[in-house]
TrEMBL record:
Keyword Magnesium tagged: no
UniProt-recorded name of the protein: Dihydroorotase
Record lineage: Bacteria, Pseudomonadati, Bacteroidota, Cytophagia, Cytophagales
Organism, scientific name: Dyadobacter beijingensis
Gene coding for it: pyrC1
KW Metal-binding (keyword) present: yes
Family annotation (InterPro entries): Amidohydro-rel, DHOase/Allantoinase_Hydrolase, Dihydroorotase_CS, Metal-dep_hydrolase_composite, Metal_Hydrolase
Amino acid sequence: MTTLIVNAQVVNENQVQYLDVVIENGHIKKIGKDLQHTVADRVIDAKGLYLMPGVIDDQVHFREPGLTHKANIYTESKAAVAGGVTSFMEMPNTVPNTLTQELLEDKYQIGANTSLANYSFFMGASNDNYDEVMRTDPTQVCGIKIFMGSSTGNMLVDAPEVLEKLFANAPCIIATHCEDEPTVKARMAYFKEKYGDDVPYDIHALIRNEEACLKSSTFASSLAHKHGTRLHILHISTGDEVHLFEVGNRSNGKILLANGQPKLVTAEACVHHLWFDAEDYRRLGNDIKCNPAIKAPHHKEAILQAVLDNRIDVIATDHAPHTIEEKAQHYWQAPSGLPLVQHTLNVMLELSRAGKITIDRVAEKMSHAVADLFNIDRRGYIREGYWADLILVDTNATTQVEKANIYSKCGWSPFEGTEFHSRITHTFVSGHLVQENGKFDETVKGKRLKFSR
């Protein structure tokens, strides 16, 4: 089917301009002015709407296999495309942990059969699967995930000799969760002794504090510089850490330093660390309990500034759903993680509306830079010949978040009761119109991401 989109305000590569776009055979065939006479099977008049490249979320936990009472790849990919996320990269702390190439391919098969969005899956590292990690094909897999902090199952990598080998020989980019485990454990023991069950509202930020994050991020960064490793540090949650990262820019599909050299260590910010702060624990409690923790208000501002000055390169979610019942437990028992993927773009557009970031920078941090950082083949931009991963957004409409319109299997959101001043009206995944004004066409599944490495 050929689709013609006319009268759109196209947000792409640091510009916003009125253009028409032709989609054919899954790809963007033509971009230009006055293409309304093009013969097409379907014409969409996008007057008053923004046309943006689909969001690429480089960090999600979709819980399949093994934890499907919380979520699965089908339900969470549906939430993703509802919110304008057309591609995702999913983490290995499922059950069983994704620690072999065979288990990794099992997840790709689930994605091929059920995902409404394009997909890739990280290969997991542990203290004892070095040989399996080395078998990773960098053209077919987004990266290698190392938990330098506690995680599900056998995924904490804390053996110094293993970390040295992984950083010295990784076949592709390493992505790390950075929290110093001894610091976290010591602080947890201290606060359990001090408070017992009568914990202060912001205890999570006190336990998983700035020191734990900075110590681990500094160590990971030092390993990367020692071995010349491409390192991507996930979910930066403190202003203390941003000095670890150099100011960069994008050129010819690469993330570069000011001197034109490739940026060795890149970083990610997540929407919840830009939207919430520690004062929100009073209202939301365990619903915003996550690792690394949401911290004091000044960190939120420092992280946003680091996004704007290109010390932090991309914006993602770390979408990690749990059931309502699990979250309702006492603090010490409640798991960490929250569902975010359906409203990630709404959050950033709300910050744009408030004048904190421009809409073209939103597209840069959520689409262009992710594609460049991971060397994704022909995605992340609105360019002729690229895959048509596109979204139409109405910033004159609203999205009211309530349980009835949440697609994540867990059925709740920390944004419940929030009215966002934007609505994602259309979502194209590899040229297929999968979502239009809340109606889904699930007849075509997303595609496996490929990497030009």
